[in-house]
Amino acid sequence: MNVEKAIDFFRLAERLECEYRVTRKSDGTRQSVASHSWNMAMMAMVLFPYLQIPVNRERVLELCLIHDLHEAADHDIPLHQQTPAVRAKKHAAEIQTINKIVDMLDGDTHMRALFDEYDARQSPESRLVKALDGLDAMLSHLCTPDLGYLCECENGFYWKLFFSDEFASGFDFEPALRQIADEIRTRASMRLWHEKNIDADICYRGDKK
User: Fold this and answer.
1) How many helices (H) and strands (E) does the chain have?
2) Total structural domains in the chain?
3) C-alpha to C-alpha distances, 139 to 8, 12, 43, 75, 145, nearest whole angstrom
4) Which domain CATH number covers 163?
5) Does the pLDDT at position 47 exceed 80?
6) Which of 11, 12, 18 minimizes the C-alpha distance to 34?
7) Which has fewest Cβ within 10 Å: 11, 75, 101, 150?
């Protein structure tokens, strides 16, 4: 082990604690990327016994930890700002950062394989982690004391996204995930109606407000 490079990597990973997302925590402050990754790992651990699709548990937890690791250098870009051009530039930057991370770990083939697996979204493990990524964002709608941020960006971009059937269909491959997502959506929809007078069900019906 190259001790100096390992410490450099740990310092890089620590930056995820300082990188903040749009989503809000129960104290009203913005969620860090590190907190988001930890939440996903905790969700995975609890849901493992109920999954119908067999997965490698260790692999899932590893993917939860590293899926946003590049944001320690590239920073999080909110979804409402991700135009096609921004996404292309973002992906190119991610590849460069991941290459630097792998080099930092002396060409660690296991780390490289994890990044490649998550990027491809083909394995049951990577699909599960991608779904947990969305599930954690949905959960914040129950935890935050104020849902206002869902309504402020781009004409309600976030509530229209997270309460759409298209978003919900991302959980269909695993019944336990869909069950959790539907319950969160129901509770959050009630919050939107009572606190913001917004009918989230228009997304389910395809109506226009």
Assistant:
1) 12, 2
2) 1
3) 33, 27, 11, 22, 12
4) 1.10.3210.10
5) yes
6) 18
7) 11
